[in-house]
Amino acid sequence: MPWIANILTICVTFCFLLVPEVVREYELWFFAALMVLVGIPHGATDWLVFRHTRQEHINAARRQFYILYGSMMGGYALVWLLLPPLALVVFLIASFYHFGQSNFTYVDFREQLFLKRTVYCIWGAFVALMPILCHTDEATPIIRDIIGEYETFLLLLQEQSALLIYGLYLLLGICYLSLYLSHLSDLSVISLEIVNVAVLSLLFFNTSLIISFTVYFAIWHSLHSFSEELTQLRALDSRLEAKDLIVKALPFTAVAILGMLLLFFALEQFSLDVPYLGIFFVLTSLVTLPHMWIVERLYEPMHD
Question: What is the enclosing helix (H) or strand (E) of 99?
């Protein structure tokens, strides 16, 4: 799977370098297409994951699932309404952990919980923040639309972006060194991880904010997560095939897409001047917390 992601990433990067104007003209369509085809469906499997990791009767499990999802989304939506900067920080930290969580499924951290969480968050911070730091001119208006006028923070982000990038690479190096010294990973695996970082860096530095985020989230994160989920669910149900998981996720995917379309239609009808990209990221953040919790429960048996 990683070599496929590497090849696709290099192809997208070189397409951007060859015809940047064309790619920029259609980047929002590229973003929308991959979110619909890959991004949203990878989260739409949450009910199936939850159901296969619970022992309760299906009706009880479904009730628990909706209560869990509804309460976490509702509580977090309230934080967005009252304290947008705090909500953004929570979203970033949750995203850091979740991105690292999906990348290091092959590492058996056993009881080393502090190292596990640190490694997850460092890797996640790298892939989540690099597109922003490499393209602060594009990211600043989106962040301003989401959290409002916090000019000191936005100015710091722009002026110190290079220092923050160096810091991320330093932390990533410490992360890999810790895995090696703790005998949790060998040099061959770490070498492959470094190749992945190099390819992602090529993407982040040479494309745009939207292209960088879309390629990472859809190709590196969502497809990889789907593959890992399928592997784990097959351990619980050997009859399960990839097409079964896709078909069973379709209703939830359709509901999510229809819900967003209705929301955007309503915003358009009432002529509300709101940023669609900002709304999309807020909606994504609302499902990140319950999604992360459910995936964590799925990955736990891998290292029991």
Answer: helix 84-103
Whole-angstrom Cα distance, residue 79 to residue 205?
Answer: 33
If one counts the domains in the chain, the total is: 1
Q: Helix H segments across 135-186?
A: 136-147, 151-159, 161-181
Residue ranges making up the domain that contains 275: 2-303
The DSSP 8-state label assigned to residue 53 in this structure reads T
pTM, two decimals, is: 0.85
With contact defined as beta carbons under 8 Å apart, do 243 and 63 qualify? no
Torsion, Cα 65 66 70 72, to 10 degrees, reads: -10
pLDDT tens digits, the chain, 304 residues: what are they? 568 889 999 999 999 999 999 999 999 899 888 888 888 877 777 877 787 776 666 677 778 888 888 898 889 889 888 888 888 888 889 899 999 988 998 888 877 889 999 999 999 999 999 999 999 988 888 887 777 666 666 777 778 889 999 999 999 999 999 999 998 989 999 999 999 999 999 999 999 999 999 999 999 998 888 887 777 777 777 777 777 777 877 877 787 778 777 877 776 666 666 666 777 788 888 888 888 888 877 776 555 4
Instruction: Specify whether the CB–CB gap between 301 and 232 falls below 8 A.
Output: yes
